[in-house]
Automatic annotation (TrEMBL):
Coiled coil: none annotated. InterPro entries: MoaC, MoaC_bact/euk, MoaC_sf, MoCo_biosynth_MoaA/MoaC, Mopterin_CF_biosynth-C_dom. The lineage of its organism: Bacteria, Pseudomonadati, Pseudomonadota, Gammaproteobacteria, Alteromonadales. Catalyzes the conversion of (8S)-3',8-cyclo-7,8-dihydroguanosine 5'-triphosphate to cyclic pyranopterin monophosphate (cPMP). GO terms for molecular function: cyclic pyranopterin monophosphate synthase activity. Homohexamer; trimer of dimers. The active site is at 130. Pathway: Cofactor biosynthesis; molybdopterin biosynthesis. This is Cyclic pyranopterin monophosphate synthase.
Length: 165
């Protein structure tokens, strides 16, 4: 198998989904992060579950998990994967007005799960935005990035510094 086969362009330059059929099945995992920057008061309300829309983190967690499972429907040319693990966790920092999101996805497959982890973190952040925008319309989502990946031919990769915005 040549390196040229792992491109989203065919011999004519047209976009296509990469054929990964000959690749070895390995356990692959990816971790992505995102940060929601708002006010200390909003983070306290999220923590106390006192926003009118309900338990923001529970809804954002489910939204992130559902999004990871549907990544191939959202990202062109992304392979559909039978995920074996999806977690979406939150670290609340009321004094900084910050919610840090960490999404982890895993699969036993022939292609990685970076896009699934990034999608889960992004959609969880968007859900928090949606549920909090009436209280803080200036809320900002930033720092969406891959933090770590394991498995596959390229092995382990980890970002030296996580920028939480």
């Amino acid at each position: 198998m040549t390196q040229k086969q792992f491109t989203h362009l065919d011999d004519t330059g047209a976009a296509h989904m990469v054929d990964v059929g000959a690749k070895a099945v390995t356990v692959r995992q990816a971790t992505a992060v995102a940060t929601v920057q708002t006010t200390p008061e909003v983070v306290t309300q999220i923590e106390q579950q006192s926003l009118r829309k309900g338990d923001v983190l529970a809804v954002a967690r489910v939204a992130g998990i559902m999004a990871a499972k549907r990544t191939s429907d959202l990202i062109p040319l992304c392979h559909p994967l039978a995920l074996t693990k999806v977690t979406v966790e939150f670290a609340l920092q009321p004094e900084q007005g910050r919610v840090q999101i960490t999404a982890v996805c895993a699969v036993q497959g022939v292609t990685g799960v970076e896009m699934e982890a990034l999608t889960a973190a992004s959609v969880a952040a968007l859900t928090i935005h949606d549920m909090c925008k009436a209280v803080d319309p200036a809320l900002v989502i930033n720092g969406i990035q891959l933090q770590e990946k394991t498995g596959g031919k390229s092995g382990h990769w980890q970002r030296e510094h996580v920028n939480h915005g």
